[in-house]
Specification:
- It comes from Actinoalloteichus caeruleus DSM 43889.
- The chain folds into two domains: 209 residues, Glycogen Phosphorylase B (Rossmann fold, 3-Layer(aba) Sandwich), CATH 3.40.50; 157 residues, Glycogen Phosphorylase B (Rossmann fold).
- The N terminus and C terminus are likely disordered.
- It has 14 helices and 16 strands.
- The chain has an eight-stranded mixed sheet, with helices on both faces. A six-stranded parallel sheet has the order 13-12-11-14-15-16, with helices on both faces. A two-stranded antiparallel ribbon has the order 5-6.
Length: 399
């Protein structure tokens, strides 16, 4: 008996994400690094994203990946309103072997209702957090229901850590899913020059979007209680193109009061390596966080992190011991933890660095995603092109 011919496919993997490069966020970076990493391994990869900046092309090839962008007609808070997004994802997914959704996403239920005839992997990054307000409360409820539907219709679900999953508002749904914990991929940023260092005093650094959920107001207050005139607070990250609005006004006001604070803006490439080489301690004082790629990359450079006691966000410190954990919004605790970690010696920092590199490196992450995607593919059919084999196939996907 002859098997029916399989439908033609253009891609091995279709990635659906609301914001994509050149936009910068932790979620976007996970999508980009996994997409480009698998493309480098020979996978044919497409990304479907909203055209968050009208200056961007609707189609282009970035890092070996075909990027399809859909028009945006409005924004609500951080969310984009792109009427053709869901249908475009479905169209590209039908000609792909696997669909990879990055959640939370307003349109996720629309993408998966009715069901697609391809395996669906959803990476659930974080419970949506928006500042208080009626519109945001309504938006959060709508997204929460959409995500719940998508998780139920996913073939498999990825989370950054079991800690994140067990404390999620979606945990009742996640318990019924084929769940795999894969930490976010983190780049090795070592080898930079301490070009942002100004004095011999302690240098504390933050790197990330300057938005309300990062808790920067608590960091500048805690730093203000460190009286050393040679101390510096280096604040790097985007504040001009961030979805939902930035807190740059508050940050600049703090810098006007305290001339030891430096606002560095968006850093890219070697500038990030130089940033990590310039700081003694990394601070991530978030009030909402699911992992914190920047803190893990700091750890991989031998810089301990002081972070808040949030499910998922505390996981890099718990997994490596490379830092301290404090309650959210607790300025005295944050100040004391910064002072404490500044005293750590080289041996402690190097041991934590080695653990962080082993746990959070890019290749380990790509191996786990590739194994998961492959495990969902149907049996090979004669004449059909399969994604290329890779040495990662020798490893088990860790759950």
């Amino acid at each position: 008996m002859t098997s029916a011919p399989s439908p033609a496919v253009d891609y091995d993997l279709c990635v659906a994400v609301n914001y994509y490069a050149p936009y910068v966020s932790g979620l976007t970076e996970v999508a980009r690094v996994v997409a480009e990493g698998l493309a480098e391994r020979g996978w044919r990869v497409a990304v479907v994203a909203a055209r968050h900046d009208p200056a961007l092309p609707t189609r282009e090839r970035l890092g070996g990946v075909d990027v399809h962008r859909t028009p945006v007609v409005a924004t609500v808070g951080r969310g984009t309103v792109s009427p053709s997004f869901a249908s475009t994802v479905r169209r590209v997914a039908r000609r792909s072997r696997v669909l990879h959704l990055h959640l939370p996403m307003l349109e996720s239920a629309a993408v998966l209702v009715p069901r697609l005839r391809v395996p669906v992997v959803s990476t659930y990054h974080i419970d949506l957090w928006l500042p208080p307000g009626l519109v945001n409360r309504i938006a959060t409820g709508v997204v929460r229901r959409s995500v719940r539907t998508a998780l139920r219709r996913s073939t498999a679900v990825v989370v950054n850590s079991e800690d994140q999953a067990r404390h999620s508002e979606q945990w009742p749904t996640l318990t019924d899913a084929r769940l795999t914990a894969i930490p976010a991929p983190c780049l090795d940023r070592s080898g930079g020059e301490p070009g942002y260092r100004e004095t011999t005093g302690p240098h504390i650094g933050f790197l990330g979007r300057m938005v309300p959920d990062k808790g920067l107001e608590y960091l500048v207050r805690a730093f203000g209680e460190i009286e050393d005139p040679d101390a510096r607070l280096l604040l790097g990250g985007d504040y001009e193109t961030v979805a939902g609005g930035s807190v740059i006004g508050m940050v600049r006001a703090a810098a006007a009061r305290d001339d030891r604070i430096r606002v560095l803006g968006l850093l890219r490439g070697r500038e990030i390596n130089d940033f990590y080489s310039s700081v003694d301690v990394f601070a991530l004082p978030s009030v909402a966080e699911s992992f914190g790629i920047a803190q893990a990359e700091a750890m991989m450079c031998g810089v301990p992190s002081v972070t808040t006691d949030l499910p998922g966000g505390r996981f890099p410190v718990l997994a490596t011991g490379m830092g301290e954990i404090v309650p959210p919004r607790d300025v005295p605790a944050l100040r004391d933890a910064l002072r404490s970690t500044l005293t750590w010696d080289t041996a402690i920092r190097e041991a934590g660095r080695d653990r962080a590199r082993q746990e959070f490196g890019v290749e380990s992450c790509l191996d786990r995603y590739e194994n998961l995607f492959r495990s969902l593919l149907p049996p090979a059919v004669e004449g059909r092109r399969e994604p290329p084999a890779h040495q990662a196939d020798r490893h088990e996907t860790r759950s």
